[in-house]
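Annex B. Sample input.
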Amino acid sequence: MKITRLLATALLCAAIPTASSAQENLKQAIENFINSKELDGNLKKQNSMENSDNNGVKTMSYCNEYSFNMPKSKRKELDKVLAAFKKDIGEAYNVQSRDAGISKSVLSNIAYGEKLDKSISYGSYKDRNYRLMFVRDTQDSLRRYAYAIVWAETANGDSLRGTITEIYGRDPQKANTVTVLTPYSSGLRHVTMINSDGTITVKDTDTGKEYKIESDMPANNKIETGMDFIKRFTSLRSTLLSRELIGQRTVQASLINKIVELCREHGKLLNEDERTICMKSLKDMASGRNDPYEKDLLKLAMLSLDK
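Annex B, continued. Sample output.
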């Protein structure tokens, strides 16, 4: 229970604004980490970048991954990055945190690349610690930063290994179509597309079969009234609970994150009766989830409405 409370606290902090510049502490801490003389010989860097030109508008996406394997005596270098992560939580629109030993369910598949056709999955190793942060680009509303810090102790306890990843590019929540790769034990079997109109298309790559889950979104896809909120909430809820998505944990997690964002950013549009209905539905959804993290996310959505 203590771990659950700590997780809920971290998620709540994501809604609290701070005076610092967006993720400046974390960006600087990562820069210091990868250039630290203390870690000479303990780091490997892998960088990828894509540029595109759309009608004269130049854009860029990148994914920088820094792998480390260092003596435990140098743990203080990683602690500096984790401290900066905590300082910048208030700048994020989504924060995910899980310590080793809790679960091996997927936390997020982070899409990247100009076509959002690549992704990195986080959360499927029970022996690892995960810290994920998503921050919107204040200069371009269609793009976002994502940060992932993953680490674990080696079996003998003498060293730490892990990765620090920086991703920048299109915001999947603002893209016309988001492709999410859903991992299964036998490999990547389903390709799931969450579309801007709220529909979800799922393709089984083994059989080639596709099916579409419809939704009832506002025509202009904007949330401007309480009824717009109810329509979006109803769509997300019915999709989350649909039989077609049973077992597709990655897609379900994405939908729950959208519910949390909806409640946090637009809950003020609801009148008292609408708020009561949504609160009851969130409570029912939370009670039906087996993953403690998903329960905490839905409770966070409730807290956003209970104001």
